[in-house]
Design a protein that fits this description.
With 234 residues, the chain is of the alpha/beta class. It has six helices and eleven strands. Strands 1, 2, 3, 4, 5, 6, 7, 10 and 11 form a nine-stranded mixed β-sheet that branches. It has a two-stranded antiparallel ribbon with strand order 8-9. The longest helix has 19 residues. The chain is elongated, with a radius of gyration of 20 Å. The model has no long low-confidence stretch (mean pLDDT 95).
Amino acid sequence: MPNRPFTAADLELLRRWDTPTICNALEVVAPHRRGRGFTTTPFTAADPGLPPICGLARTGQIRAAQPSGRTRDQDRAARIGWYEYVAQADLPTIVVIEDLDETPGVGAMWGEVNSNVHRGLRVQGCVTNGSFRDIDMLAPGFQILGIVNPSHAHVHVVDYGREVMVHGMPCAHDDVVHADRHGAVVIPADVVKLVPAAIDLISRKEAVILEMVKRDDFNIDLLREALAKSEEIH
């Protein structure tokens, strides 16, 4: 079992907060990551009402616009190899799939069958620049962030286990990924345990301002006062 600076309980705890809040916390505990490490292009969420997901990345690359050029047996072996790779995890996972086609999303890797298969392999959801379908038949609780498309086309696995780039977010095998309807972010492993305390600090700082703006006599002078008090909280 890998020696990680966090546990399954730490990842589960991070699911209490939405992804923007996680990004806010990373500005405190990993300021060098303030401008990178998160998705920068909007997605369609399969179910916007689902709670956030957080797990270890299982990365893959696909194409769908053209046939793979391999034999049927080779395609089957690549698909089984992918499933075996995904299954080799000691903690819950999130699949991060890069569609390599010039126009990503031509063919959907994700639908009723694949969402249920992956949920059975302890995958919480998928973040992809590719597409998904069968919106009403996806595995219950399985979140997908991607493009909606009705066809498989020629979708096939190209590779897996290597670093991918999905809508501006670089992601490598075993990276900690947090995602919800807003998008996704990679959390550096060495700050996972620091995020909850950072969220608490930010919440206390914001509470001073939010309480002030609710006052009937709120004005610019009170705003200056609230901002000053907020900065004094450590």
